[in-house]
Amino acid sequence: MSEDGEKIGPYTEDDMLHFYNDHIIRMDTYVWQEGLPEWNYFQESLYIDNTRQADYTAKSVFDQATTRVNQMVGEEGAMNVQLRDVFSEVFNKHSKEEAEKLFIAGTAATTPREEEISAMWPKPWLFSRVFFTLIVTYIILFYSASLFYNPILFSGLMIIGSFAVPFSLMIFFWEMNAPRNISLFEIVKMFFVGGVLSLFLTLILFNWFSIENLGFFEVFMVGIIEEVGKLVIIGYFIYKLNTHYVLNGLLIGATIGATFAAFETSGYAMNAFMMLGDGAMIDVLFNRAWSSIGAHTV
């Protein structure tokens, strides 16, 4: 190709596609390909056909995936998913009445019929208020503990620090449950009872398999055992609630996983506090908080 009158290259076809996607070259960049008598604009070359084909293939795969997800809320066709749309209501002001309206969703009186389910994807915001409230609580406890070093406050730090992210994520998935057929009461009950049951079942499985030294295989088995423990409880609640939507399953799975993550984090934090002090406990709470987003909950 030619840049500012200087010939650069040669490059492979994959290189050219990467240059274009990374905005290193433009449509009016001169390029030359073997077999062509003269230089052409990139937009007139064979490369652009390959680029369009690659874009089309990627879009086709994405459209197939989103079409399936879109059917969960009663809509047809592919959807244009953008995170800024999903989280567009987070920074908007909402009234107390709006929050109360959300809190009563999922009851026998407020669950919509299937034909009444909104075709629009939910735009959750309540989870951010819950998260903000828990973070403010954590900060107050943290500075109180730092100023007065009262041991009683450290238990509060462990509890709030362990539950802030998982509990907020649970609220997020509850808001994203478009059918609006599971109440917050059911979710909170599932969060505590179901989560503890999944931990109990996991501990039973650990006793059966008796994992001691954590090598590669043992670490792999730990993950399998934990997931099996959660899946059994998730399956029970799906059966108990007689759910009919995939989004219900995602919500139930996230709820059980959130509790598992929260209680596990509190245990690690307590061990760190007893063995290494409050600084180690804070590190555990912080690292486990952000990692729980992609670990047990999601």
From TrEMBL:
Q: Where are the transmembrane segments?
A: 126-146, 152-175, 187-209, 215-238, 245-263
What keywords tag this UniProt record?
Membrane, Transmembrane, Transmembrane helix
**GO MF annotations, alphabetized:** peptidase activity
Keyword Metal-binding assigned to the entry: answer is: no
**Keyword Transmembrane helix annotated:** yes
Pinpoint the GYF domain residues.
2-39
Top-level taxon in the UniProt lineage? Bacteria
This protein's name: DUF4339 domain-containing protein
